[in-house]
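Board notes (copied after class):
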Amino acid sequence: MIQAVIFDHDGTLVESEGRHFELWQKILQPFDIAFQAEEYIREHAGIPTLKNAERLVEKYRLALSAEELYAIKEKEVRSSLHGVAFDLLPGVIESMQAFKDADLKMAIATGAGQTEVRSSIQAHGFDRFIEHTATSDEVENGKPAPDVYLLAAKKLGIAPENCIAIEDSNNGLQSAIAAGMPCIVVRNPWSAAPRYDGALAVFNSMTEAQDYILRA
């Protein structure tokens, strides 16, 4: 029996992937790297920042550590979010209200850091609905490891199998599955995958996902 909905953050609740891509472009430009959207979508969207930093350092043989590149990116994110939160995706608030009306608990489980999630909560009033958050700052392993979903379920006090995750990326989907949590996907152009193996269902809008969950 579904007792809670656990949302991913980037690309599921807010349109953040486009800005993340632009920030990576800016960071990599001094290294004479022409970072393209196709590469970001193919290799980096829906992936925790530190893992992206590791991949970029290795691929482009950058003369700094992944931790140093990660710190630069986090600084750029904080600067970008100062007074300008990520845009809300369509149907999110309406679906949160519908889940609340159905007495479903809600949480966020994300590969993003607390800075990003806090910005979205404050800007869009998610605190009216979201009881707990689990972020990359709080776990040892990021997605696709199950850590953030297990932590979110633990904070809610609900077994993973009695929660349902909403994701936009295959990476996040595998994280939820690894936690023993059923998961549905709401497609996002930035994190689109040819297949979403293991998803209960795949939709094109949060409203469709809402209707599916409330019928379950």
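Comment from the instructor: Strands lie at 4-7, 14-15, 87-88, 105-109, 132-134, 163-167, 183-186, 202-203. The domain at 17-81 is CATH 1.10.150 (DNA polymerase; domain 1).
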